[in-house]
Design a protein that fits this description.
The chain is mostly helical. It has a single domain (44-463), classed as Amino acid/polyamine transporter I (Up-down Bundle), CATH 1.20.1740. It is built from 17 helices and no strands. It has helices spanning 18-25, 29-40, 57-68, 71-74, 76-81, 85-117, 124-133, 143-181, 187-201, 211-233, 251-262, 265-273, 287-310, 327-359, 368-389, 393-421, 431-463. The N and C termini lie far apart (56 Å).
């Protein structure tokens, strides 16, 4: 793969300015030769990354698994309810492949543009900006827009996902407390209590220090899965009354839920950039492939058999369908709530890093620490406020998946790869352009259809017109 030429600000590369001419004439022939040799040398971004606060390969795998094994996997039976058994199984595998491919092309493009700009690592937004900056001349002026689009998109995505987390934790705790104590508090009271520990967890600023939280959360999730599987298979399963395919009108909800569940696009670049051995991220087996194969397999199994077990009464989290009042079921609900609570720091890390990078230069050094504490606290409280405004888990998951993850997870990576490769690196018959165009169309269709159906469902909930 050839390196991209740097932007020329509209000037022909054959035209030199006076400053360019003077700087070259001051060099000897030997110095010019050394400079040319240096410029032509292939830059290795991996060799230039700092190792301070870096994560091991295992630690990175744990982070990546945890970013995808959240509330989404427990919503998979609801996704199958909106697709049917056969369509759901095939659709989960196809969407899993698409999501994995989009992460691959994003990371690979980031590695390539790092060599061009001679930087050890680039985040999601930085990758988008540099790709446009060094891309086709007519697109270079959109470099700043590309950076801002990804930055604000990631912030909106993960703040919204954090709202889903708050609703899930609160609903799980309420389900247990309400049955055992007969205290009929509104879910918004539980949300207020949940916000308190989240404020403290949200103050952690280094990804490395979140590894223990992710490890414990993964342990909780494994135990929860084991209990959930016990309840799913402790009675005979009935397949005959479960349709192989659902109404086409429900498919956008399936797509949105699966995309929400699977996509950890905002966590991918921070995890990859913080790896001690980033060459282990892609490839076979690689951190990404190992994580995604595990995720897709678990999603398909939980979604398929969860829907077979509970049918149309399945809820936004299958743990909420477990037998009320049984100790084992309550343990599963509380463990999953604890796992999501511990995961909050990882999800909160992404938007805060973006926000802080944008406002940090405007704050004096002696006030930065205090300002960080204040901003993090205010945002977490605001997250609770949004969660209290839309405390319906099913509707929230579908809406967030449709609007945010379809754009950032599918549309943006396909555009980034296309711009980087255009016009000479698109493969035979420009198949990469056609492939990425299809991905972009799928993401836009998911955005329009999924958000429309989700908003209609939310309106029905608030007007009392929802159908059981």
């Amino acid at each position: 793969m050839t390196e991209k030429s740097p932007p020329t600000n509209g000037k022909s590369p054959d035209i030199f300015t006076i400053s360019d001419f003077n700087s070259k004439t001051e060099l000897t022939k030997e110095e010019l030769a050394e400079e040319d040799e240096f410029e032509n040398e292939i830059y290795n971004p991996f060799a230039n990354r700092p190792i301070e606060y870096s994560n091991s390969t295992l630690g990175s795998l744990v982070h990546l698994l945890k970013s995808s094994l959240g509330t989404g996997i427990l919503a998979m039976p609801m996704a199958f309810k909106n697709s049917g058994l056969l369509v759901g199984a095939i659709g989960t595998l196809v969407l899993g492949f698409i999501c994995t491919h989009c992460i691959h092309i994003l990371v690979r493009t980031s590695h390539n543009i790092c060599k061009t700009v001679k930087k050890p690592s680039l985040g999601f937004a930085d990758t988008a900006a540099e790709v446009f900056k060094y891309g086709p001349a007519p697109l270079r002026k959109f470099s700043g827009f590309a950076r801002a689009f990804v930055d604000y998109g990631l912030m909106a995505t993960y703040f919204s996902a954090a709202c889903v987390y708050v609703v899930f934790i609160s609903e799980s705790i309420m389900n247990v407390v309400q049955f055992r104590t007969h205290i009929n508090w509104d879910i918004r009271i539980y949300i207020a209590f949940v916000i308190i520990p989240l404020i403290f967890i949200g103050q952690i600023r280094k990804l490395k220090f979140l590894v223990p939280f992710s490890a414990v959360a993964n342990l909780f999730i494994i135990v929860t899965f084991a209990i959930t599987l016990y309840y799913m298979f402790n009675q005979p399963l009935h397949f005959e009354d479960k349709p192989l395919s659902a109404s086409i009108a429900q498919f956008p909800l399936f797509f949105s839920t699966v995309i929400f569940a699977m996509e950890g696009i905002g966590v991918v670049m921070p995890v990859e950039n913080s790896m001690r051995k980033p060459q282990h991220f892609l490839g076979c087996p690689g951190v990404l492939n190992t994580a995604m194969i595990t995720v897709i397999t678990l999603y398909a199994l939980i979604g398929f058999f969860g829907y077979v077990r509970y049918g149309d009464i399945v809820k936004g989290s299958i743990t909420l369908n477990l037998q009320e009042g049984e100790v084992l079921a309550d343990v599963a609900k509380l463990l999953m709530a604890g796992a999501i609570l511990l995961t909050y720091g990882l999800q909160f890390y992404v938007p805060m890093e973006i926000l802080w990078r944008r406002i940090k230069p405007k704050i004096s050094k002696d006030k930065r620490s205090m300002v960080q504490y204040i901003i993090r606290t205010v945002i977490i409280i605001a997250t609770g406020g949004v969660a209290a405004a839309v405390p319906n888990l099913e509707a929230f998951i579908s809406l967030v998946g449709a609007i945010f993850f379809s754009i950032l997870g599918l549309f943006v990576p396909s555009v980034i790869e296309t711009v980087y490769r255009y016009p000479d690196l698109l493969g035979p018959g420009r198949w990469i352009l056609w492939k990425n165009s299809i991905l972009a169309i799928i993401s836009i269709a998911a955005l329009i259809a999924g958000s429309t159906v989700s908003i209609i469902d939310i309106v029905k909930i608030y007007t009392g017109d929802e159908q059981e």
